[in-house]
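Protocol check, entry for the methods section draft. Step 1: assemble the input record (protein sequence plus ligand SMILES). Step 2: submit for complex structure prediction. Step 3: store the structure tokens unaltered in the notebook. Ligand used here: pyridoxal-5'-phosphate. Step 1 record:
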Amino acid sequence: MRNSRRGAVDPFIVMDVMEAARAAEEAGRHIIHMEVGQPGTPAPAAARKALAKAMEAGSLGYTVALGIPELRRRIARLYKDWYGVEVDPARVVVTPGSSGGFILAFTALFDAGQTVALGAPGYPSYRQILRALDLVPLEVSTAAANRYQPTPEDLAGHAFDGLLVASPANPTGTMLDHGELGALAAMARDRGAAFLSDEIYHGIDYDRRAVTALEVTDEAVVINSFSKYFSMTGWRVGWLVVPEAQIRQFERLAQNMFICAPHASQVAALAAMDAGDELEANRAAYARNRARMLDGLRAAGFDRIAPPDGAFYVYADVSELTQDSRAFAAEILDKAGVAVTPGLDFDPERGGGTLRFSYAASEADIEEGLDRLRRFMETRG
Ligand SMILES: Cc1ncc(COP(=O)(O)O)c(C=O)c1O
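Step 3, stored output:
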């Protein structure tokens, strides 16, 4: 059997944790899910209603490659509403999730063998998708003192053709402010590198609003999704905002790679964008869970954390307890009945000493999970 070398990417460890949790549940155990990176809430009611109507009314065939024009216009308006930035709807590309957006963007921007810099820890699929496209991920270690976000100093001395940042980030939930984002975008521009900004957790922020790269430059490729704030993970719909000069390059690739994002999901996504009250209620529940987590994790003894500005994760340094986060996560699942994600997914070098806790689950589950973690840590001594 032939296999490509490009295809030999690492597994997504969190998926293995989910499988272990599922097996435990099948064996009759009750598991609290702090491993999953997805909202427990469904797509907004208005989205489901709009889709039901559309299913009766038409065939939901292919859409044009860049997405339904009304959805592209509505996404452009979001930039005005949230950030006060004017975006031409022509620059919006609707994609099959942000995951499809990464494939499209990496293919549009880079040639085989080129290098894309990323901060570590970071979302694991960045490096795996890059590798699968014969691109070279350059993982730059970030400092706890910088809340695990990359700085121009971290990147100095490295050669790269692209720079990808995420704010709020997965696994830490920390954000880059206007100045920090601007400095990184300027560094990329000065080197002739593409600047990509993963903004998938925008909308899920707490004390201050997340800054979009479009507030600091028109040359960025912004990646976003309906998966998180809009609570539509399985619908597989996201979007890019691309520089004006590159629209046609993205369009040609989108036509050939995907034809279009799922039509049904585009209809639902359009309606979801006007479900403000429901989405804000979800956000408020995350905010309460975040406060519970910061107290509860500390009380359990997980006190080396960078308080998250957004998203629904807490990344904890547990290196005083273990250098094998995979075994530690397995022990927590086994003894406490709480599924958590080993840091190795996010940082192959230092992740043996870290864990990611997600608080996207219900408020009752988070209470219960924290209680179990506290009791587990007490018995561990
Ligand atoms: C930082 C980040 N980017 C992108 C994705 C991919 O999301 P999707 O393909 O559902 O839009 C995820 C999923 O968890 C993520 O955490």
